[in-house]
Request: fold
Amino acid sequence: MGQTVTSSLQSSAKTPKTIAMKENTEHQALANWLQAVANERSKAAFTHLFKFFAPKIQRIAASKYGNETLASEVVQETMSNIWRKAHLFNPDKGSPTTWVYTVMRNVSFDLLRKIKTKKEDNLSDDFWPLVESCEADDADSQFEDHLASKEVMRCIDTLPEEQKCVVKGFYFMEMSQEQLAQHLGIPLGTVKSRLRLALAKLKQQIGGEK
Amino acid sequence: MISCHPTQEMLEKFANGELPATLAAAVSIHAEMCSECSAQIASYTEQQAEAGFNDVSSHDASSTNVNDEDAFADIDIDDMIAAITATDEIDIALEDKEKTITVKGKEYVLPRALTNMTMSNWSSIGKLARSRVELGEGEIRASLLQIQPGGSVPEHTHKGFELTLLLDGSFEDDMGVYGPGDFIVLDGKHTHNPVSHEGCLCYTVSNDAQHFTQGINKLLNPFGSFIY
Ligand SMILES: [Zn+2]
Reply:
């Protein structure tokens, strides 16, 4: 998929008369790459995104903060957030460039705050949430999308304690299954099966409420 | 109905991430309650993104690329990509569980912007209770202020600015009645004393006048109506 998109982007870029069309095609290509990162963890798609955005972010941040080192840090952090949060991008809610801009703005805010106040509280996602509230979700969006909802939090709270730990650790504290096994002092296989059980239960509960 | 809003300049600075956390929190809370300001912020954000990432019309595409590559010549792109994509984990940004606080027997749901902030213990005088929000921004200080039913803030002048964002309940002064979402900025040249008949909870931000910078002072003083 990435290949077709690239070639159409390049060919349209050669025609200066079609700027509006180029922008549309470009947005489409960027949106496709974000989705390929989200759904397939595609490194090829990420590389395209990186080449498109990283130099621009570097330029914007360097001119805004007058500091190349800080600008590189903004690039590093923004791009790694894109890799980790691409699933939060929703093409129906806005353009891919606006979404990446908000990621960059949030990263910059937290970085600058860390420098100025020595606080590492990362408040940006509370001030500018990257995810819409659950009312807006369409009915057939994926299970992962529902994890953003309070409803799911309530369901998670009804899980048996041992499953709750695994789900919270894995999804909310971003621990790997291996880290969880170590942290909880249980075999990796147990972590996997608890997670599977918990997710099955959650899917059933959430499905049942529709 | 919300009658007091942040200025356009504040909304734009908020969209650009340029306000201190104390004020960004206030604008964020207001925007959550005010669809007008929220739409305005979205439009500023889009304009910024457009200017930064989509500015193809003003440049020849090829020369833009050359500049961008120059700006990025020192960094080993492949290494950076490999390092970033080495992890398979994703961030599940979930809405925080609602956080509630109870002050003098009354329970409030905190706005999202305040859910992860550290707050001091409540201290109270008469019908007022206050908790400091610890944001570490020096002379710019944020608090939660509760006025219990029938309580009022004693008349005083403030040399800096004071921002009051009403979160719950209402209060009134000689200028009018204010309700949840109202974003009231005053610079303390005027005195008055707001009274709350039903009680209220406010998020307030104020600064110490002597240490205050010209730029933000200017930003915060465009209003003709004042409260504290
Ligand atoms: Zn408003």
In short: Chain A is about 75% helix and 0% strand. The CA atoms of residues 54 and 76 of chain A lie 8 Å apart. Chain A touches chain B through 71 residues (CB under 8 Å). The two ends of chain A are 34 Å apart (CA to CA).
